[in-house]
Structures are given as structure tokens and as C-alpha cells.
Amino acid sequence: MSDTTAATERPASDGPAMEVRFRGGGFAPQSRRWVGVAVFVALVALVEWGTRAGWISPLTLPRPSDVFGTFVELWNSGLLFKHLGPSLSRLAVGAALGASAGVLLGVLIGLFSYVRAGLVPLVAAIFPIPKIALLPLFVIWFGIDEGSKYALIAFGTFTPTVVATYGAVDNVDRSLIRMGQSFGLSWLSIVRKIVLPGAMPGILSGLRISLAIAIILLVAAEMLGAEYGIGAYILQAGSLYDLERLFAGVVILSLLGVIVSAAIAQIERRVLGWRT
Amino acid sequence: MDIRLEAIRHAYGDTEVLQDISLAIPAGRIVCLVGPSGCGKSTLLRFIGGLERPMEGRVLQIGAPPEGCLNPLTFVFQDFALLPWRTVQGNISLVLEDHGIRGKRARAIIDDVLARTRLSDFASALPKQLSGGMKQRVAIARALAVNPAVMLMDEPLSALDSQTRELLMDDLITLWTRQPFTSVYVTHNLAEAVRLGHRIVVLSRRPGRICEVVEIEKPLAERLYADPDLDEVQRHLWEMMRDEARAAEEELIDV
What we know:
heterodimer, A: mainly alpha, MetI-like fold, B: alpha/beta, six-stranded mixed beta sheet, 7 helices, 9 strands, globular
């Protein structure tokens, strides 16, 4: 029986017809690419306007255009790269050491109960130590030049990487491991072909946090015995209350953070294309 | 190769799950294990496949596995257990790599099993692109690739919708008719059991014991959808299981 005949045979009640109100939707994040940029631009424009109009005193906030001027000067004088070079190498070496050691230990904790029982409390104990507090110790251990800086950054990235990695290994689907065993795969094959790829999403999202911490620690690492480096530059400007230079340095760190995060997003897109 | 279970008993803590199970699984036949939920049928299958150890009793392999058999006891899982980061052919080559089969030889095996499961066009698809039925066909292809002596199927169709289930049952029957394989097939679905089983073993609720073993003589290829002979067997099985199933269902609450 079609709808039209049904309607003629048995008329519906005579009350007023009302369209059903839509109440679904929402709660689904969508990509809105330019909003982030717009907020940023609006904020900078507001500060610029405030400092020019005078309702923000130049003592509280530097004028964004002045900060930009300082940045251009830094670029033109070639000092930018003189500062950026050592910082980037410290960041790269320190983070690489810390993250690879962290992934290795995290996988071992994930795989072996004895390692887990022995080291998880230790990791929990060193995780909350502010690594900056240990800088003098590192200077004694590794020397005042590059060694202590690498060590500080490496140590800071190490603990969050360990925690993220063993969590990721724990979360690998056990039924896939059983499958591997049921086909007689060797232990090494199971680790290499099932556990590690399965833990990759967790490891990469842990790496995001670890690398942000590495950038934070960069400034701390350059507190002692560094002539050049973004951190040294910021600290120098800070002690002179030179807000333009301070902000120029901070902006560079922010940009560094954005670039690192974008790089990890790229890696995730390539390595984790299999995720639904 | 035959499989024989001798007086198997098992308990998890204080709850006894299996009691005195003795069973023969003859080569070239499909033995279905049916029973109410929680009766230990999947546990029994894991004993047969060596993924778990019974507390008492033994699982015996009788005779050598056939020539060219890479993994005599091979599972097909309910949740497919495909590696999501590997393509269809990558998932199959996974189980060949450890036997040193790579390159051309692997290619030949993969092409053969994909053709047998009608998946040749999807060799480079990722699991996330496949439907449930196709995923299970990939898992079956992967099992066939190691040329198993016994296929251990743990509710292989339970995660699929009923139409896909019918289609896959037809596929399994075609596969068996072309080349008979030995299989232990765990299911709670009696329709599957009577379509695919040469021998149906009915387990009681926990602690699981063998209630009855029903043989169905009719050849697999002649068993059709809604076959009256099979319906008769299915009704008989259900009569036997109904009370057990109800009791088992009520039991779950206080476990």
C-alpha cells in the first residue's frame, strides 16, 4: 500500500503540522584552517593599536611592529643564524638522544615484566623533578659546554617518552599478538611486525609532548655558559628588560614549536595512513 | 593428521569451565562445537591450537602433517585479527615471511589463495577499506596460505551480518568441496553448525561437558539454504540446548 492511498483512507489527526526540530549535530570538530591565523592576527593588531593609542604603556608590552623591527635587524645582521644554529643543534642532539633512549626503554618496559616492575617506579620518581634544578649537577657531570646542554634536554624528553611508549605498547591489540603466535611467528617477528607498528600512534603522540618539553628546556639549558643560542638571547634580553628583544626571541621559540608540531603531523599522516 | 582430545579438564580459579572432554577430530572433516555462551568452547579451541594449556588431559596430534604444511594448526578468529597497517597481501605475506618464503614464491602462494577466496582485485587494499565479510575472507586466505592440516575456526561468522554470513558459508562449502580440509568450527549458531558440520558436538553449560555428538551424513555440497533435513537436525539440537542456554544466560548475572 502506498503512502498516498493510506493518507486518503485514514486521514491523520487535524492538529497543526509542525516540522520536527533539528537537534542533532555538533560535537564533531571540523577543520577550520584560517581561524587560528585570524585570532592571532587580531590579537597582534589589538596590541599594536593599544600601544599606539597609549592605553597600553610601552613598559607593559612592547609594540609588535618594534618586535618585528628587532627581528628584521636580527636577520639582517646575521645574528639570527648565529643564535639559531647552536640552539637547533642542541635541540636536535638532546631530543634525539632522549627520545630514542625513551622509546627503547619504554618498549622494554612494555615487553618485560621484570623491567617494568623495576623501572616504572624509578621513572615515576624522576618524572616530576624539574630538570632545570639539575642543571648545576649536569654542569659538574658533563662540563659547562655542550655536554650539559645535551644532557638536560635529553633527560627532559626521556621521561615523557618512556611513559608514552610503554602505555602505547600496553595498548597494542592483544588479539593481534595471539594471531601472530597462532601462526608460529617468532618472538622477534611479533615485536617487530605487530607490537612496534601497533604502538606507533601512541609513540608519536608522546613525541609531540616530549619535543615541546625539549624546546622549553632549551632556554634553561642555555642559562649557563652559552654565548649564542635563542635561550641565551632571551635570557640576556630579559636581564636587561629589553622587551623587544625578549619578545623577538619568544616568537622564534613559538615558531619552532609550530614547525615541530607540523613536522610530526606530516609524519603521522605518512606513517599512520592505515588508521580509520 | 587427526586430533584427539583426552580427558580434558580446566578451571579458571574456582569456576570449572570444562570437564572430562574426550573427542576425536578425523582428517578431512568439519567438526562443529556448539554450546551456550560461556560453556568453554572457545577455550577448548585454544587448547587444540596450543594457545592455552588445559589443567588436566592432553591434546594429541596423530600422524604427521601433510607435506608442505607450514603451520599445522591454524586459527581463523572472530575479530579477523588483520594487521590494519598492512595491505591484504601484506597480511598474508606476514605469515610466510617467518618461513623464509619471500619474493616470487610468496607471490605465487598469495595469488593462489586470493584467487581461491575471490580477493584477487583487492590485493593492495588496506583492511579499513574492506567490508566485514571481505576481512574474514582475507583471514581465511591467510589461513590457507600456510596450508594448514587443521583449521581452527573461532566463531568466524559471528561478527558479520546474516546475509554476509550466508555468502561466506557458501564460500566455505565451495572451498571444502574443492579441497577437503580438517576443521574444528566453534559457533553458537546452530544454522551454521548444520550447514557446515560433518559432526556436531554439543557442549553443556558451564562446566562444559559433551552432551551429544550428532553426525550429519548429507554431503556439504548438497546442503542448501533452509534444507528440511537440516532443519530437523537443527530442531533436535535446539530442543537439547534450550534449557541449557536459558540456564546459562541466567547464570551469567551472578558470575
